[in-house]
Amino acid sequence: xxxxxxxxxxxxxxxxxxxxxxxxxxxxxxxxxxxxxxxxxxxxxxxxxxxxxxxxxxxxxxxxxxxxxxxxxxxxxxxxxxxxxxxxxxxxxxxxxxxxxxxxxxxxxxxxxxxxxxxxxxxxxxxxxxxxxxxxxxxxxxxxxxxxxxxxxxxxxxxxxxxxxxxxxxxxxxxxxxxxxxxxxxxxxxxxxxxxxxxxxxxxxxxxxxxxxxxxxxxxxxxxxxxxx
Length: 229
Ligand code: ADP
Ligand code: ADP
Hints:
Residues 2-228 form the ABC transporter domain. With 229 residues, the protein is an alpha/beta fold. The chain is 34% helix and 27% strand.
C-alpha cells in the first residue's frame, strides 16, 4: 500500500537547515498496523505528516496505492487525503461551535450528498465508536476520551484505507488510553491500515510493526540497543 524510498525532509528557518528525516525506507502492506516511536524531536510527527500526505518530503519517492506522489502539489495530495486518509491528533481538534454529530458530518461536506445521508453516515460512525448517545453535545461537554472517540468517528466516516494518528492517547489517562487503543485496534481488524506515533511502549504493542526513529533515521531493534551501540 505504501512504499517510501530514500525519503528525507529538511526545514529551513533563518538560514538554519534542520534535517528532520534522513533517508527513510519503509513499506506498509494494506491492513497493517505500524507504530512509530522515538525520543522527542527525532522526526516522528514529520514522518507521520509525510505518510499522511499532510506534508511533502524534500527528497525521495513515496508510492501510495501504486501512485508516485512525492512530487504532488497540495491540491493533488488533498484529493488523495479526502478519499483515502483519516487523521487523528493528540489534541482531538474538534470544532467547539459544532455539535458532536456536526463535527463528524464536516468530514463529508466535500462529498456531494444530501444532508440526510451525511447525518445517517455520521450517526452510523458515532455508533461504532460508542458515542451515539451524545450526538447533540458540544466538545466542551465531553471528557477527553469521548472527544477522541468523536475525532476517530470523524476520521473514519469517509471509510479511509489509512488512518494516521499522532499520539492519539497522549492526552488521556491510562484507562481511557487503553479504551482508545482497543477501538483503533478493532478498526485495524476491519482492514483499515493504521500508522500511529506513540510514546507508550504498551500502546505500541497493539501494532504488528514497530519502527524506531533516532535523529531522523530509522533504527532497527530497540531504542535502548541503538543508544548503547
Ligand atoms: P512530541 O511530538 O515529541 O511530543 P512536539 O510535537 O511538541 O513533541 O515537538 C517536537 C519537537 O519539534 C520540539 O522540539 C518542537 O520544538 C519541534 N517543533 C514542532 N513543531 C515545530 C515547528 N512548527 N517549528 C519548529 N519546531 C517545531
Ligand atoms: P517528533 O515528532 O519526533 O518530536 P518532529 O517531527 O516534530 O519530531 O521534529 C523533528 C525535527 O524537525 C525537530 O528538530 C524539530 O525541531 C524540527 N521541525 C519540526 N517541524 C518543523 C518546522 N515546521 N520548521 C522547522 N523545524 C521543524
